[in-house]
Amino acid sequence: DPSALSTAMDFERNYFRGAPPSLLNGFIDSQVDFPTFQAKLGCQGFAIFDAARNLKVSGTLPWMQHRDSAFRDLERKLRQVMPYAPPPVGRRLRIHGLASAKGAALNSQVGEVVGAGDNGRWLVRLDGAAEPLAMKPDNLEEPMLGMWVRICGLTSTKGLALNGQVGEVVGGTDSKRVSVRLGQETVALRQENLEEVDQPEDEKFGAVESVGHAEMDADHDKCIAALRALKEKLTVPTLQAVRHELSDHFQQEEQLLRKAGFGGAVDGESGSMAGLSALESHTNDHSRIVAIADEALAKLDTACGGVEGAVPKATAVELIRAFVEHATLYDSLYAGKLESPGSAASPAA
Prior knowledge:
Oligomer: single chain
Distance between the termini: 10 Å
């Protein structure tokens, strides 16, 4: 993959700035070094090995389809490989997912991890309880998970720049901090520096960042205009227009990326891809976004097309967020690496 090094550098700069030193960000620079076993990597899932380098899990859930649930799947499978890893003593967690009559009464209650129990369970003392309960780690989650919060009260130079920003809680850390996603960055903060706010009803967005290619930038503007129209007029025709605009743009973008050799594309215009490539992840995310529109249109097949409000507002919000997220996470990786029509040739990284 000719873009492997630049992609790894982009991920280092954009996503791994706050990662612990134990995280190794690598890349494969030769076809002969590609895995010979069946496995998924990166946005397509993770392969998990044990300490003896035995392959234990060939692929976790792909982030592209499952988003934050993919990381919870990864954590669950890691616990299966390391069933007796030390519990996060002192961390406050919420019980969830218990199905029995007795267990269901415990769901949503919060307690503190106080030690290790038998068979890989964690001892959790619920608020106000004298004795701890032995719980499976899979039935415990960050108590603020899914909440939208505003950052406040930070006093450091870096912290002052974060105050006032709104994000979603996506997890917790063993240091009793809360992981908050702010756009493409995730920060770990103390709970006292967070205040709960209502979930934004829709994305406040204008133009997405330029990718340095006039045709693609113009396409992005058309997509945004169509999404704005859908947000204002929730009808089947406006949803169909969004679907058409997105699909047309994605097809043109994929052709350009293949011609440029981005993310492991080979054979020029034929667009065949090496198995584990940035382009494959990119095109799969295109398919995910179009599928959101297709599924909504299928449900609205019998709806009166021109009736205002026929399309659920949640569909418009989901499409807006998906497009903005894609532009931020995926399109930014090829920014400045494509030749615009009439411009001087620039090498694809």
